[in-house]
Amino acid sequence: MDPSQQGGQQPYQPHPMPQPHPAYLPNQPYQSYPVPPFAPTPAVNGLSIASLVCGLVCCLPPLGLVFGLISLRQIRRRGERGKGMAIAGTILSSVSTLLTLALLATGVLGSAWEGMKEGMDEASRSRSTLDLRSGDCFNLPGEGKTDDSETAAVETVECAGEHQAEIAGDYKITGYREFPGERRLEAIAEEGCQKINDAYAMDPWAVPVTMDFYYYLPTRQSWRLDDRSITCGFATTKGEMTTGSVRRDATVLDPHQVAYLRAEGLVLQAHYVIPEADFAEDVAGHQQWATRVAAALGQQARALRQHTWPQSASGPAADRAAEFERAGAHWQKAASTRDEERFWGHSRAGETALARKTEIALRGAIGLETVPPIEPEAEQESSI
């Protein structure tokens, strides 16, 4: 009998096992999927950056406006980035352009520009005292007086115009490792600057009577920064203004003028070293001083006689040489006496032996100043 017909029940039949998904089959290789192509980031428009920069710095604002408008067109056409910067630059440049036009219309910008130029010009003329060089003319700071406090910077100007001071030169201090002190530096400056000033302004008649010896010294602070320079020159003592340079050296003088001024300068340099003590306290020192003056006068006479002068100057030069010889003889007598009255009598005779009219005649013949300097006191007395 058919088992299916017994008891009306269906016989049990085994159910087949489900098949695994193909993706999870063992030893099934990994199946990769294609990667979509890469889309590059759009470039930033260069003119948009330029527009923003011009708008921010307010420099040439119309240029920033033009850059912004051009960059907006390029961004739309090329699909570039930078639209925000182009818009910001255009707005800022537009505001700057309108502001500039308003300032031009009212004259404010012109005044500001002139003020800026004046400030730049003044800054360019400002120079440290450490940087001053021979031939520089400048104005003194403060009230313009030579006894003002120490100065770090001055305003340089053209020597042909009004000024208060002029630099003759500078030299280095040697022999000191530590700061020697202000008094010692002053003594060094007076000795060294005298030679520099005499060489720079060989003609004392060309130096205004309102100008005097002047120098800059290292300070204790600048000494620590290796400042060892003393700067020498001339300056007005009360802040007066002067014009023209006092420079009278071989760079601006002819050989005849140099020969004469060197001869005249010898006796002046000898007079500088007069003893500080009175005659009775330093007789030997005064005799040595008179000997130096006599020797300088003799050297002056020989220099004038040995030089070949132009015909117009030969006569006055010979007359001046004879005066030097007579004056030297009086100073030699002063050097040989120990009597104070005789000493000063011979020295005064030596001074009066030099006639001013002879000096003026020789100066005029070689083209030098013929008007002697007049002291302010003498000028006031003559006007009364």
Helix/strand/pairing class, anyone? alpha+beta
Write out the strand line-up for the largest beta sheet, numbering strands in chain order. Answer: 1-3-2-5-7-6
Number of discrete helical segments: 12
Cα gyration radius (Å) = 47 Å
End-to-end separation: 175 Å
- Main pleated sheet: 6 strands, antiparallel
Shape: elongated
**Assembly context of the chains:** single chain
Compute the number of strand runs: 8
Proportion of residues in β-strands: 5-15%
Note the run of SSEs as H and E.
HHHHEEEEEHEHEEHHHHHH
- Could you list the spans in which at least 5 consecutive residues all have pLDDT below 50? 1-12, 20-39, 115-126, 378-384
Helix content: 40-55%
| Mean pLDDT score | 78
Task: Write up this protein.
There is one protein chain. This protein is of the alpha+beta class. It has twelve helices and eight strands. It has a six-stranded antiparallel sheet with strand order 1-3-2-5-7-6. A two-stranded antiparallel ribbon has the order 4-8. The radius of gyration is 47 Å and the shape is elongated.
Tell me the layout of helices and strands.
Layout: H1 46-57, H2 61-78, H3 83-106, H4 108-125, E1 126-128, E2 137-139, E3 153-157, E4 162-163, E5 165-172, H5 182-200, E6 211-216, H6 220-224, E7 229-236, E8 242-243, H7 255-271, H8 283-306, H9 311-335, H10 340-352, H11 356-366, H12 376-382
Antiparallel strand pairs: 1-3, 2-3, 2-5, 4-8, 5-7, 6-7
